[in-house]
Amino acid sequence: MLSAAKELNYLKSGPASDLKKNRTKTIALLLSDLSGPFYSELIRGVQEIVLENGYDLIAVSSYADESSTAARFLREARTDGVILLAHNINTDFVLNSAREGFPIIALDREVIGNPNIISISVNNSRGAYEATEHLINSGCRSVAHISGPANSKDSQERLAGYKQALADFNTPSLYKWILNGKFTQEGGYEATKMLIHQGDLPEGIFYGNDEMAIGGLNALKEYEIRVPEDISIIGFDDIQLAPYLRPPLTTMRQPKYEIGKLASHVLFQLLAGESVSSHYTFDAELISRESVRLF
Amino acid sequence: MLSAAKELNYLKSGPASDLKKNRTKTIALLLSDLSGPFYSELIRGVQEIVLENGYDLIAVSSYADESSTAARFLREARTDGVILLAHNINTDFVLNSAREGFPIIALDREVIGNPNIISISVNNSRGAYEATEHLINSGCRSVAHISGPANSKDSQERLAGYKQALADFNTPSLYKWILNGKFTQEGGYEATKMLIHQGDLPEGIFYGNDEMAIGGLNALKEYEIRVPEDISIIGFDDIQLAPYLRPPLTTMRQPKYEIGKLASHVLFQLLAGESVSSHYTFDAELISRESVRLF
DNA sequence: CTGTTAGCGCATTCAC
DNA sequence: GTGAATGCGCTAACAG
User: Fold this and answer.
1) Which of A42, A153, B34, B81 is in Cβ range 3.0-4.6 Å of A256 for a Cys bridge?
2) B243 touching chain A per CB within 8 A
């Protein structure tokens, strides 16, 4: 009777099944904006490991802050674990969502003291230091920095690395050469225009990420300032577009694929009850293309 | 007592809540590959409407066919509705997953006869016709076509439009000038190399999508065939990279943002019990850049 | 207005 | 082996 019903088009309810089994066999990747096209490498890394372990992967957006889908997935443990790359969810919220058996891997912040939260980050200050150093070593006697939002840890660290390099190489560190570009293309465009209007153009610009560098490139083109003949620029991230820009963008590559793989790998270790380090670090790598003038 | 527990760090279970309420307030966007970077416009459109309606959006991959996450979300109605853009899930499976009160919006196929499944598509054959026509009108006396997978409806229709244009404009239609590039960059590269090795190069190539055109551009560059001086090429989709290619790619733009908005809009109408058309169509639009030589 | 209770649809257990 | 009963953790309905 019941089996007959099953044969002819039985559709089970996922939620009911999850409730009973107390696990979803699903991992959520929490992103600040689903429509941002720059995570594909990371997603690929995560997806590989998640599928390999017989789990499903869903991507969730934290678009509207704490009322967002992502927040709900965190707070209500709608999956068996979570990989967090959503800087607009605040750390207290994350801490309050942590619970036994619900691993959280944070890729965009350092969370200490909670055994259910592991963080993985790239060495931003070091990467920024190298970017700035590269500009200086290739002949720039002055270097500006277009930074990201002040509340972003990535941005703060990159700014710190930049300043350290200026200090170490006796290069002028001027307030007017540090502008906020909000990590967006538009922001990079505006910040670069401001830099140009100030009159005293530096010989190099270190953009806190590639998106802002794209905006910068557009602003520079508008004013017929040639890259790299008149000014050298360097970005951070190595997004997919970087090699296609004119000129191809020199940048600091983040090993996104590797980070994605490690994040999910660690997640499954936690799910299996194994103990892991509370923090992992990767280095960024200089990808030299044509936006920095070499001597 | 219970309220005291709540105050100090109560974490509710999402699955249990969903079960009780019999709705998730979540819409799933089913994509064939989460790491594909070419959906951002569409996602943006969907996200806007979904959030506006107080719902959450999650993105799910159908990476591993019928055993995939996406398939599970369809089959088990894990969300209140679904937007489908996953050609690797077959239509019978979709039909068998349909149920009352679980709207499915199909963006990559035409599904007829089921009131719970609505399809939205672009007029592929017409777009392909226009692409081919554009090549012919700009002076190409011969036009090849690199197509997508044979089982893709999009690909079939684009091929049909191409053939129709050749017929209408008395342009030679040769079997050797229709090659399969699988809708991937690699496939487009290989197909283009084959075309080159055949010796008798056409004056224009219509690629079934932009990704294959990128591969084609690479192959052409390798053989020092100049675009558009030696050969004109046109793509389909207008992906984000298209204007950044060398030369900037002429292509048929799909109104992805608008499609995303309509898809979610229709979904909510269905959820509200309103009746809607069973099928909607958009037109592709010629975006003229520099990969077609103009006379 | 606060406290108790029934039942959502499954998977698992136990009785048969 | 097949079939009925229990309870997962909530929410909504209801009683006090």
Assistant:
1) A42
2) no
